[in-house]
Amino acid sequence: MSLWRRERVEGGDVAFLGFEGAPSDTAVFPWREERGASTIDEPVPTTTVLAVRPWSIEVGLLVARVVLGVTAVLGGARTLFDLPRGHGDGTAHTQVLLSGYGFAPAAGLGTALGWVQLVAGVLVTVGVFASFAGSALLAIALVALVVTLPAAWASGTVGPAETSLFAVALAVVVVLAGPGRISGDADRPWHRGQTAVGITCAVLAVGTALTVLLAMRA
Asked: How far from the centroid of its chain's Cα atoms is residue 43's Cα?
């Protein structure tokens, strides 16, 4: 069964050249239908076929986006404001953790980490500039994965890197697939060009993670 719903729209209703008039999350295929000889005064009719993603995929993207965004917001709130209380994962704990993994200066990095998580998490949750904000969360998740892999390798279990792996997977979905139609980015120009935006944001995330690992870790 196809994952795409095909809709036929008579030529003129959709500007398929450059995708100017196509809705978001569509693949546009123009057909020239020969109906006998044509002249300059009688152009050949054209039919445009839109392949539209079903809503089940949109709901799946929404769930992935909200889980990633809310988790990042909670992490940022704990790092910056020790909220919610009683979890033992506040500002001091974050700085000790960063120092333990060899990052310096721990205080400045902890503050930057908290604000990036908070702001990017809010943007991802509501689906505004979601791929761009998701690239920041992907960079954080990649750094966390790299620093936790040695412990996972030494123990022979995925446990130490499990959270980081899930974070990387969710962030990759948001960055590459985009926020979907149930978002604040729906039908924005950058959402229509999701392939280019997603690849650019993924490359930016990898570059940022490498920069942090090479320049800010002893």
From this structure: 43
Which of 140, 131, 206, 147 has the alpha carbon at shortest distance from 167? 140
Q: What is the pTM of this model?
A: 0.76
Could you give the CA distance from residue 127 to residue 124 in angstroms, rounded to a whole number? Answer: 5
The DSSP result for 174-190, as a single string, is HHHH-S-SSSTTTT-HH
Helix axis angle, 55-81 to 91-100, nearest 10°: 100
Which tokens hold the place of 4? 């795409």
- Buried residues in 28-40 as b, exposed as e (16+ CB within 10 A): beeeeeeeeeeee
DSSP type of residue 31? E
Given the DSSP bridges, would you call strands 5-10 and 26-32 parallel, antiparallel or unpaired?
A: unpaired
Tell me the three-class secondary structure of 127-151, residue by residue.
CCCHHHHHHHHHHHHHHHHHHHHHH
Q: Band of the pLDDT at 19, cuts 50, 70, 90?
A: very low
pLDDT in tens, 122-176: 999 999 999 999 999 999 999 999 999 988 888 888 888 899 999 999 999 999 9
